[in-house]
Amino acid sequence: MMNIVIVKDLIKYAQRAENEGLCKHKSGNFSILDRSTGLVYITPSGFYRSDLTVDDIVISDLKGNVRENTNLRKPSIELSMHLKVYLKRPDVNAIVHTHSPYATAFAVKGIKIEPVTSEAYFYGKDMEIVPYFEHGTEELADAVSKVIKHVDVCLLKNHGILTVGDIIENAFLKAIYVESVAMIDYLSKTL
Ligand SMILES: [Zn+2]
């Protein structure tokens, strides 16, 4: 059985992330793990967030066995990255992956965002930089899962960012705050 509360929450924050400018068009992906059933709800691959309905959300178990989707959607190509993070972090039940511009600029350069304003406390101030691997590969999933044990934020080299949380709202807020701290850090350095 699909948990409709989880599905609606996932769509709400995926669309909110788009409205806040964290990701555009078809980039970025979002998931929630229901620990009571071991099922992961993830946004579909190559699909506009503004068009998402409950029947577009894809459900997988933690081993990557994907259930047939009502609207025949495929899971995000980053499903494996999400699953490997859940396996490493028993405290994490939601993952947000975006290509938000300021944070991604730091990721491109491989420079950590300095905790220059108080929003950084919300995500624990620190982050890891994950080396570049092609989108959707096991290598990328492995590289993220290797470092996610110690931080709630990863900068993915030449790609984007990943944040985790106990609930989707918190993973989303971390992504928001990482982007705003990155912007302030960048702007203040250029003054
Ligand atoms: Zn991406």
Spans of at least 5 consecutive residues with low confidence: none
Distance between the first and last residues' Cα: 54 Å
Percent in strands: 15-25%
The SSE string, one letter per element, is HEEEHEHEHEEH
Label the CATH architecture. 3-Layer(aba) Sandwich
User: How many DSSP-defined strands?
Assistant: 7
| Helix content percent band | 25-40%
Q: Could you describe the largest sheet, including whether it forms a barrel?
A: 7 strands, mixed
CATH structural class: Alpha Beta
- Ions, cofactors and other bound molecules: zinc ion
CATH superfamily: Class II aldolase/adducin N-terminal domain
- Structural class, by secondary structure, is alpha+beta
The number of helices is: 5
Question: How would you describe this structure to a colleague?
Answer:
It is a single chain. The protein has 191 residues and is of the alpha+beta class. The chain has a single domain, classed as Class II aldolase/adducin N-terminal domain (L-fuculose-1-phosphate Aldolase). It contains five helices and seven strands; from the N terminus they run H-E-E-E-H-E-H-E-H-E-E-H. It has helices spanning 4-19, 79-88, 101-109, 138-147, 168-190; strands at 29-34, 39-42, 58-61, 94-98, 128-130, 153-156, 160-165. The protein has a seven-stranded mixed β-sheet, with helices on both faces. A hairpin with a 3-residue loop joins strand 6 and strand 7 (160-165). It is globular and about 55 Å long. It starts with a helix and ends with a helix. The relative contact order is 0.16. The model has no long low-confidence stretch (mean pLDDT 96). The structure holds zinc ion. The site of zinc ion has 6 residues, from loops.
